Amino acid sequence: MSLETNLPSFITPDIFLILVGMFKAVVILLATLIFAGFLSFVERRVLALWQDRYGPNRVGPFGIFQFVADVIKLFFKEDWTPPFADKLTFWLAPVIAMSALLVSFAIVPITPTWGVRDMHIGILFFLAMAGISVYAVLFAGWSSNNKYSLLGGMRSAAQTVSYEVFMGISLMGVVALAGSFNIRDIVAAQQDGWFVFPQFVGFVTFFIAGVAVAHRTPFDLPEAESELAAGYHTEYSGMKWVMFFISEYVGLVLVSAITVTVFFGGWHPPAAFGYQLFPVIMNYIPAVVWFMLKTCFFILVFILLRGALPRPRYDQVMAAGWKVCLPLTLFNLLLTGIWILVYEPLSGS
Amino acid sequence: MNHSVEANTMTSNSFVKSLSTLKSIVWGSASQLRSMYLIFMHTFRKRDTLLYPEEKVQLSARYRGRIVLTRDPDGEERCVACNLCAVSCPVGCISLQKAERDDGRWYPEFFRINFSRCIFCGMCEEACPTNAIQLTPDFEMAEYDRQNLVYEKEHLLIDGVGKYHDYNFYRVSGMAIAGKPKGSAQNEAQPIDVRGLMP
To answer: Strand B133-135 to strand B94-100: parallel, antiparallel, or no bridges (unpaired)?
Structure first.
């Protein structure tokens, strides 16, 4: 109560809570955006390390101000809309790309006390936003009125129909085990054992789908710069292009964060099947550090994937999605259902 | 009987087929994981990049870089302004004008190379009969102003002999100059007196 006595009278406890919530949301938004921008530098350095190069190392110590220089450059770029483009859709596409993935961050619980929104349909919201973000690529590809962009958009559509189905199902095993769509409940259920161990197949398939959601290299068919110029954003320049660019990194952070919260225990220290690893020591490490460490690990894995693997043809992506991943996830869901039926029937009720 | 046998072979065929599909999936995934591991191990490799302005590039002695005009061992200009370099130049970036000294030696009055056109092919060096024009292992010639890439004789002429330490054109050629009449060059016979009777 001592806090509220010092505040002006119009700030009731409710408004105070709303203000705190808004403050947290803004902090998380800014942190995500800055981190995503910084990732463009980190990725180039790390990728260079794995390709025996140096990458950008000139601006500031180790080149860490490279992304500042890039941002300044990008702000002053001409933002040109081609006369042959479909104006409204052309403008809408980058906005969707940016906002759909950023909005998904609302459901990511960072620590027990930090997070934007505690939604009881958390995972469904993420899946919905991932679905909407595909419209950005489709709109951009179609409205650019350019055959490379159109091919990129078409590939994106082909890719989407093949990964979205099994991405949803791959998360359902976890949902069944935790008994909730709420990501906070899912994290809480992993106190004594990360879901990656009982749901390893689910993790692998979700990870593969995650690469496709973020349009990262093994599945970057929509932009495939070696085949389609820049794919769906060939005609984009200036700030609109920046929004696509940043949204790729936001997607990278988002998919890593979701992987961590759903399969790797969110802010919880390592634990498997009821056993915790060095519980005394590990619990001293703050929750936020655990979350950040795990997210950064997955971001690095994504960058490693980009450095290591070639891009498949899009019929191969579709074949792998429908013929391998979908049966695997369905089988995994079936096994999970049987396990729940045998060992903890009626646990949810 | 026949039917059941057929059905049997069909099921066994599809079983073999699905087994081989499974094998290719497992094998393919293992191969992808292996390439990720191999790329990851590059973390501990030495990087190939040369940090250029700090670390200098090791150039071979025959590197074809900035063009110079050399002098003979006596310190005189080697160039005799024969124009063969200008003729051989595929981009036509060399221009010069012949002049003659009081002692009879020829020299270029001006000698100009436009390095914004030069392709460093070395044809001028090959064409030069007096080893005067030579290419050196130096490429750091960047300029902010294009006009600064036009080198005059004063920029091109160096004090040394370049790659050929002993060569002196007027010592080996039959051309007569002041102090060196016909027949006094190295390995040169006296000129034949065409009006003489002796063979």
So the answer is: unpaired
